[in-house]
Amino acid sequence: MLREVDVKGVRFRVADEGEGPVILFVHGFPLNYTMWEAQIAEFSRTHRVIAPDLRGFGGTDGALYSVSMEQFADDLADLLEALPVRVPVTFCGLSMGGYIGWQFVQRHPSRVSKLIICDSRAAADSPEAAANRLKMADIVLREGPEPVAWAMMPKLFAKCSDDHCPAIIAKVREMVMASNPVAIAAAHRGMAVRPDVTAWLPSLQLPTLIICGEHDAISPAAEMKSIAEQIPNAAFVQIPNAGHMAPMEQPELVNAAIRQFVG
Ligand code: MLT
């Protein structure tokens, strides 16, 4: 069921399917909840699956000049309160969704029982990468999402010759192109100032699963494996024949890893 939920005056679009323990799926940049379609179909058989569009993206309002990862995390806590979901959830975020995940665990520890980070990083941007994001934020506001699609699309996927690949690439491009330029700029500005959370990793107590596409060009598998090694109770799963969009590129393998983790 696709719902519209008022969260402190902002209208959120949220997929809310199934019954049982809750898994919260948090999309990457600059996408929307539909990137999780394969996970929603699988896990709504056994869980309550909640997959929102983040502030300003997809069908959710509330775009701002800049949105920090802390703000996105607080939005999600407020969304759970509004639904209402009061039991601790499994938080599963991809890339920017993972940056938000670190903040969610830190700021709202009682709301999360398990953490899944897909194709993401703990490190902050280099000064050069942060400066590029600020430039891109201005460009997007002038020219729309096309320059972001042009810059990101070549980095998102592993080489793939299967029949389903063109459809997945087209779907991601469509999501990027449909995103609100104000939200894209705001998230770029927020990611540019996100903190390095590497020092937090050894203190994370909750069961954690780190998933990474073998050929991820944005958050490399070796870096993600090292993140898992620094978290006391973490497992690392590398997804073969996948890049940064592993949950879309290899949904069966990603679902199997999540299934084993959540039961
Ligand atoms: C994402 O997939 O969310 C982005 O690659 C995150 C980023 O730009 O760092």
- Which parts are unreliable, with pLDDT below 50 for 5 consecutive residues or more? none
Q: Which strand-content bin applies to the residues?
A: 15-25%
The number of distinct structural domains comes to: 1
Q: Could you spell the SSE succession in H and E letters?
A: EEEHEHEHEHHHHEHEHH
**Count of helix runs:** 10
Bound small-molecule species: D-malate
The dominant shape is globular
What radius of gyration results from the CA coordinates? 17 Å
Largest sheet: 8 strands, mixed
Mean pLDDT figure: 97
Alpha-carbon distance between the termini?
A: 23 Å
Q: Which CATH architecture?
A: 3-Layer(aba) Sandwich
Strand adjacency order, main sheet:
1-2-4-3-5-6-7-8
Q: How many β-strands, per DSSP?
A: 8
CATH superfamily: Alpha/Beta hydrolase fold, catalytic domain
CATH top level assignment: Alpha Beta
Structural class: alpha/beta
Helix percentage: 40-55%
Concise synopsis of the structure shown:
With 263 residues, this protein is an alpha/beta fold. The protein has helices at residues 37-43, 69-82, 96-107, 127-143, 146-156, 165-178, 181-192, 221-230, 246-249, 251-262, and strands spanning 2-7, 10-17, 22-26, 48-52, 89-94, 112-118, 208-213, 234-239.
Topology summary:
Layout: E1 2-7, E2 10-17, E3 22-26, H1 37-43, E4 48-52, H2 69-82, E5 89-94, H3 96-107, E6 112-118, H4 127-143, H5 146-156, H6 165-178, H7 181-192, E7 208-213, H8 221-230, E8 234-239, H9 246-249, H10 251-262
This protein binds D-malate.
